[in-house]
Amino acid sequence: MKAAALLQAGITEFSYHGEEAPVLRDIEIAAAPGTLTAVLGGSGSGKSTLGKLLAGWMSGGHSGLFRGTLHLDVQGAAPGGDSSPLVFRGSPDDPRINPALWSRHVGYVPQDAAALLSTVGSTVAEELAFGLENRGVNRQLMQSEVERAAEAAGLTALLDRDPATLSGGELRRLAMACSAITRPCVLVLDEPLGSLDHAGAQSVRALVRSLLESGTAVIVLTQTVDELGLAADHWLVLDGGTVTARGAPGGLAASAELLQSGVVLPAVPGYGFGWQCRAVAPRGADSRPATPRPDNPRPATPRPADPRPAADTPAVLELERVSFAFPAGRGGQGRGILKELSLAVRSGEVVAVTGPNGAGKSTLLRHFNGLLRPGLGTVRVLGADIRGVPTGRVADKVGLLFQHPRDQLFERTVLREVLFGLDRKYGPEAAGKARAALTAVGLGEQLETHPHELPASAQRLLALATVLAREPDVIALDEPTVGLDRHGLERLDDAVRAATERDAAVVMVTHELAYARQAADRILELRDGSLREL
Amino acid sequence: MPNRRPALNPLTTLAAAVAAAVMTTAASSWAVSLAVASAAAVLAVRAGVGARLAPAAAVILAPFWLSLLIMHGLFFPEGRTVLAQWGAARVTTEGLGFALDMGTRTAAYVMVFLLFSFTVRLPDLVAVMSARRVPPQFGYVLASTLTLAPAVTVRLARIRQAQESRGLVLRGGPLRRLAAARQQMVPLVLALIQDAGDRAQALDSRGFNASRERTSYREVPDTAAQRTFRAVALAAAAAAVGLRISGHWPEGLWMVGLWPDAPSPVALLAVALLARGVPA
Predict the structure, then answer these.
(1) By CB distance 3.0 to 4.6 Å, which of A6, A103, A352, A427 could disulfide with B205?
(2) Do the domain assignments include residue A250?
(3) Per-residue pLDDT tens over the stretch B21-60
(4) CATH (domain of A393)
(5) Testing the interface with A: which of B206, B208, B218 to mutate, by most A Cβ within 10 A?
(6) How remote is the C-alpha of A308 from its chain's centroid?
(7) Which residue of A has its CA nearest to B136?
């Protein structure tokens, strides 16, 4: 017998203030106890807005105009105290959701998990207790609840740690535990596996499993059919703000709607797509492959026999016996350490660097343009030692895509973002270069948008455009695939290909080995401070 | 970072900081101010926050001292003993003395309160405030204010790195550096506002604006002796202000009688207690 839904939402329309087109329309979604629902959608499909709406973050008219119903089948959840559906008509008289009350029943973990933390808790235990303190729970009960939540999330050993020192996977589990500690009957997770390495993803999956077993209804919003998506009972495909397909995963796996949506599909039998077809065309291929269409997926193409640049091609980037360690107390001891590391990358070559979280991959990339300087050893760009050369000058030759777009973007509009620093290099041609780079990543029509208003995938592409516009000889990409939907991945592939065609060298750090195998000429693993070929 | 557990209630160290600052003002003596400021500096080094506190204090004090020197060192109307003169500008002993007095007094405040803010455990402070029925929002704002400097530093470093990676060269004279800093200010303020907006929604969802009484996970240490000390320190501070206002300040022999303007033992005791609150 099918259990009654705990949360049911009927969204006729939702639009943000100042925008005419609705972000969401004609969506019905229900969450039953102990079930996992995956909402699959590409960048800009409205997933995060849907998550916030379900979590009660968007009601009350201050964020946008909402017409539809929310029905939480729990006594005392609605403002009136009963459990009848809340009806929103987009008028000032609409019911107002108290986020504190609503979140006791519907927990929400945003895409940027760190944003959920209070920042005043100096330990994991205090951060976990924050929501209970606000609800006036007595100390004894609070302590047992903190222990229970920590155990469920595998955080028991970390209770006394400063949240600022947690790894990505640990931080995500902490945010989930902070939401789950009040035992909500529904938990909405936005991209819960994004940017996590294998171990981190595994720990989050285990936590979701235990929540499901305890009867929680879990809704996962994702643009990748990852392991969580595959484990879901029910799929909803979101495209252009509305549900284009719904049903059991097996029935939707090869559907046209899913292929159209920009969702990244796994490279497993039955899906047809995967890293092979979303990823780069083989290096050295003569012509650009056509963009895959639902009716004509791009076939996996074998890699050329030897795509590497000739051995006598001069190295554009050389690291010679580079050693580096953060001062004690920063970044955690033993993290981000490089030990007598050597690397030579030739022009036109694509090198992928992989390794576990905290191995020092980002630290390595930051040595390329001088943001970090080696304690010992030498970094040479185009044969010249960059010792003593300011980063701003090295940046003419080396472009760096940061791991988090929010660290890279600081301007008020998309165009201004790419124009920053470009006039110093190109003078009057700067505007043309900026527009061309934005067009290349598909943002040519959004020049005046605020970068913060872009979906995560578009933010990363914008950050990529700021690198591409400078046409550097060395392009360093830190986890470039994270947060990109399939359309975004195709843009990335095109950018990498175009860069190598003009003989730029590309070094990309990625935890997605399957992608690295397709995209790179060689793969190096960073472990224990040094690189080895895989 | 190891879990630091200071032995003192944050209210005790706060009372000590307030008492030290108030009594330093009431004493109105450069020797007292200097002693209090130096004691705070020594404690900051002992607590391992000297490296962070020194630049913060310099940013606040350097422009202030400079303006004092120009205002009072060169243009002090009551100055009688003229040491040097250039037109309307006169360097007088009295002017320099006043500037020294004001400068050291401000240094004492700044050092004492920076020491407090760099060493207090924020969760403890928020917890004791909510236990005293202070609205938690007020405690959070206070806590956020105390952590604002580190947050701004981190954010500023990120923006600078992003700009350097796109060709901003941070070299050259002060004017070029100033121009570069100007480019970082607008993004900094916008980013902080954005962060605050995002954080507000998350705090709401975690029940932070709930109307019911808040409890505290942490048990903040407090003893009868500490409560007595707080009362005595604040009473002594009030008494010092009273004596100064009424004109009965016992100049020279106040409570010690060893030498004129000796540092008040209460003020020094207050600083010493502040030190006990400092995690080793």
Answers:
(1) A103
(2) no
(3) 998 988 888 888 999 999 999 988 988 888 888 878 888 8
(4) 3.40.50.300
(5) B206
(6) 30
(7) A134
